[in-house]
Amino acid sequence: MTALIALDKVTFSYDGNPKNPHPALKDVSLQFHEGEFAVILGANGSGKTTLARHLNGLLIPTQGRVTVTGLDTRDRSCHGIIRQRVGMVFQHPEDQIVATTVEEDVAFGPENLGLPPSEIRQRVDAAIEAVGLEAHRHRPPHMLSAGQMQRLALAGVLAMRPRVVVFDEATTMLDPAGRRMALALMSELRAAGMAVLFVTHNMEEAALADRAVVLSNGSVVFDGTPRELFRKQSLEDWGLEPPPAVELGGQLRHVFPHLPEDLLTVEELLGSLPSPQRPCEPPEYISDGGADQQEREWVIEVQELNHTYMLGTPLAHLALQNASLQVAAGRAHALVGVTGSGKSTLLQHLNGILRPQAGKVRVGPYQLDDPAVSTRQVIRLAGLVMQNPESQFFEQFVGDEIAYGPRQLGCDEPLVSRVRWAMEQVGLDFLAFKDRFTDTLSGGEKRKVALASILAIKPRILLLDEPTAGLDPRSRKEILLTLRRMVNEGMEIVLSSHQMEDVAILAHDLTAFRKGRNALQGMAADVFWQFEAVRELGLEPPVAALVAARLRTLGWGVPSRVITAELLLDHLERCVEVQGEPV
Known about the structure:
Elements: E1 5-12, E2 25-32, E3 37-41, H1 48-54, E4 63-68, E5 71-72, H2 79-85, E6 86-89, H3 102-112, H4 117-130, H5 146-158, E7 164-168, H6 176-191, E8 195-199, H7 203-206, E9 211-216, E10 219-224, H8 226-229, H9 244-252, H10 266-272, E11 298-309, E12 317-328, E13 332-336, H11 343-349, E14 358-363, E15 366-367, H12 375-381, E16 382-385, H13 398-409, H14 415-425, H15 430-433, H16 443-455, E17 461-465, H17 473-488, E18 492-496, H18 500-506, E19 509-514, E20 517-523, H19 524-528, H20 531-536, H21 543-554, H22 565-579
Parallel strand pairs: 3-8, 3-9, 6-7, 7-8, 13-18, 13-19, 16-17, 17-18
Antiparallel strand pairs: 1-2, 1-4, 4-5, 9-10, 11-12, 11-14, 14-15, 19-20
Helix pairs in contact: 3-4, 3-5, 4-5, 13-14, 13-16, 14-16
């Protein structure tokens, strides 16, 4: 079969030097065919985005060659045809949004092909419907949430009807429902004969592909099926880890040794769980060890908060409506909900970027509806790491960027020491990164720098908007461990996230939003065990909670409210001691 895209011994260095000892890509040879669904995996900085940008001629090999339907990307006269045939959804969707309304942006590509107006209209309508943006077609793109922007970027590519679609971390900012929509769309594209190439860090998404390609330090180290990949012992060496269902299945095998070794999905895992020899009535409740609601000290209180963007204009958009929130001292509180539910808007009220139009917000001693309270005062207390790291970068070099906050707000220790400490907290080597240009970093590295720049201020409260988006599995685990340690040391954390596994690991308490209103709230374990209510919000309960619930129905004495693998395994080992080996 003739390849749609072929890479032949491709080496690439950003400085153009063929003798560079550390090229971004090194001797890469790959072929991608019609109707193929392939994922490209690897740690942050492994070369995934660099590879993706070679596939439609955005980057040209330093050595070797790339052909697209037989056309050599080194021939710049072919770039127009190549980019019609290979559409790309970028990691940062705002990089490819050019128009002033959603439908105009989707129409931009077909208009430049010179298509008849009726054909353009048909393509625009189909693309907008495919990504679920019908209600937003007349909105300005800058008024969309990050997840909605990703949907818009995808619609713009679909309207071009390419033969290959390359997704570069294109589901990073999507909620679980949005990710399911995107993956279903990828399956439809593959069924229609297109090749789908998907750069991702999400191992659950990778499990759905036909083929997995792994990069490490710019070289291809694996090319096979996801099922083969997740049984590899070298996953950790490549900065990867198996999907939650595969990882939990491996851990459960210590208790249930006869579990199949090739489990790939949550459904396969749930269907393979054994029954006990002696069923028993499981306990109903376990405590998270926190203080009773009445005894807690509230460091953040939000009451009946309302916020409308572009208030008083025809484009007014209600983002928050009578929203409420209480964050207790020494605890982590998660904000969850689908894209556009108001999470980021609420976070921006908690450090004074946005001020209440109606309602009250108190952060520590500061009442933010009081105009006498300055944003500078609030920032010292509550530091915000934004959804898009570049939104808060001021400097060219990493070290200067991390030093920016303490330099502006004052620092009671040598600035270099503070910067070094902050970089160590997020796993960035001081000497290796301090003189790097911020615009040369990978998406995950930029997120680490953004977090370090806020930690360098040493706020009491840390506000995080999608803190693990774009991070490879190893970096994600390191960041979560760092954040857990900070909470254990007394810091309060408020995070918004679409990653329910991360929320289960980190958060004590949880507030779920729907269309700017409170939908569910309480301790995270209590909320996640409301399975149907969680799913109605477009979210998915953590895998450990689903497994615990299934074990309870089989007769194992596992308590309710279990939401982490660690807690599940602890209780399950005790159950086996009492109830005997599984049958």
